[in-house]
Amino acid sequence: MTGDHYFTPEPATPAQPREVEFSVAGRDYTLASSGGVFSAARLDPGTAVLLRKAELPAPGTTGDLLDLGCGFGPITCVLATSAPLATVWAVDVNERARELTAANAAQVGAADRVRVAPPEGVPADVTFAEIWSNPPIRIGKDELHQLLLRWLPRLAPDGAAWLVVARHLGGDSLHRWLTEQSWQVQRHASQKGYRVLRVTR
Q1: pTM to 2 decimals?
Q2: Are 195 and 165 in contact (CB under 8 A)?
Q3: DSSP code of 140?
Q4: What pLDDT tens digit does each residue of the chain (201 aa) get?
Q5: Euclidean distance between CA atoms 96 and 92, whole angstroms
Q6: N or C: which end of the chain has fewer CB within 10 A?
Q7: DSSP characters for 134-161?
Q8: Strands (E), 78-124
Q9: What ranges make up the beta strands (E) of 69-183?
């Protein structure tokens, strides 16, 4: 056993390449995954609820979109194929996750529109029309709050963030906390114990 978590910058866990298959909005995806990244063996149930219940960007969407905590890239690839005129920033602290996301973006024909970066690699002047995240709840509440306080202010004035959080891991308390930070929060959907939150200014 190692001490690796999916938010470990350089996982020591053996790579163990694998494929993850799933479908969203009538399109089938087969993406490369690996040990040492979040939900390596399947599409995470929370991510599945987010992609099924949130409002995917329209084909005419332009500007910059953010997948915060991209893992091996399922949200990134869905956003990039749903919004072929947009640029998708795929951000993760995990180097292996970033490598997989870049490969998967190329596999779905979106390498030219996906920017894979560590958090510090996103230029400070970039603002986002949409932020999508299945946030890393297990980093702890304080760290999670700091993460959201870092990225949510980079929403464009009319932008929206889509977050999915398991109810038993604090989905409702996160809703309250975001409201206390003066964000407008709508519980857009609930399914299988997950809350899908739409966050705006």
Answers
A1: 0.94
A2: yes
A3: -
A4: 334 455 666 666 777 899 999 999 999 999 999 999 999 999 999 999 999 999 999 999 999 999 999 999 999 999 999 999 999 999 999 999 999 999 999 999 999 999 999 999 999 999 999 999 999 988 889 999 999 999 999 999 999 999 999 999 889 999 999 999 999 999 999 999 999 999 999
A5: 9
A6: N
A7: ---GGG-HHHHHHHHHHHGGGEEEEEEE
A8: 87-91, 114-117
A9: 87-91, 114-117, 128-133, 155-166
